[in-house]
Specification:
This protein is of the alpha+beta class. It has helices at residues 3-16, 29-41, 46-53, 57-63, 101-109, 164-170; strands at residues 73-79, 122-129, 132-138, 147-148, 154-155, 190-194. The chain is globular and about 60 Å long. The protein starts with a helix and ends with a strand.
Length: 195
């Protein structure tokens, strides 16, 4: 056996036990969300954002998805089926509810940190549950249909779940279909995919 084969077997074994290996992420998911909002707002350059978070510009370019190139995008949201969090003040559920479509729709559309500049380009939200694409909802790009809370988080106007045919017609470059595996990366709760 060659030395590198043992290394590959060790890495595979570690992944099977739920350990990722490799260098730790330079930015937390919260920092990535904040950097993405700063980038989308267009008030700061990538160099200024990088300086704010004490990382290299190249790190941000790798992390900021669906850059300002005029492309449409989809938001991928990673979840699991553990009992969802419930807001004590509003009784609103977060994540997977296991309840009716009406309750799940409410949990699926509120509240996401989506910058106003990105909203017209956001065409869909893809919900990945336990590593599998569970549903895709189209997003209404009409600016009047969006509302925002005091934190700047958006109440996204989404449709009922799209069928396979609707996904193929409305989002031909998405590259994901219902039931596709999409493994969750530890620490990542959402990401943008360019369409």
């Amino acid at each position: 056996m060659r030395a590198w084969e043992g290394t590959l077997e060790g890495l595979a074994s570690a992944r099977a036990r739920g350990r990722g290996g490799g260098r730790p992420a330079k930015l937390t998911q919260h920092q990535l969300d904040q950097a993405q909002r700063m980038y989308d707002a267009g008030e700061d350059t990538v160099a200024e954002i990088a300086e704010t978070f004490h990382v290299a510009r190249s790190t941000l370019y790798k992390q900021l998805a669906a850059h300002k190139d005029g492309r449409d995008c989809a938001l991928v949201v990673y979840r699991n089926t553990r009992p969802g969090k419930v807001d004590a003040d509003t009784n609103r559920r977060y994540g997977e509810t296991g309840a009716s479509e009406k309750v799940q729709l409410e949990a699926d559309r509120k509240w996401f940190p989506i910058a106003p500049a990105r909203r017209p380009r956001l065409k869909a939200i893809v919900y990945v549950v336990n590593g599998v694409v569970a549903r895709v909802r189209a997003v209404d790009s009409d600016p009047d249909a969006w509302s925002t809370d005091d934190r700047g988080y958006a109440d996204v106007p989404v449709t009922k779940p799209l069928t396979e045919l609707q996904i193929a017609r409305r989002l031909p470059t998405l590259g994901l279909t219902l039931g596709d595996p999409r493994p969750h990366v530890k620490g990542k709760i959402r990401e943008y995919l360019p369409l």
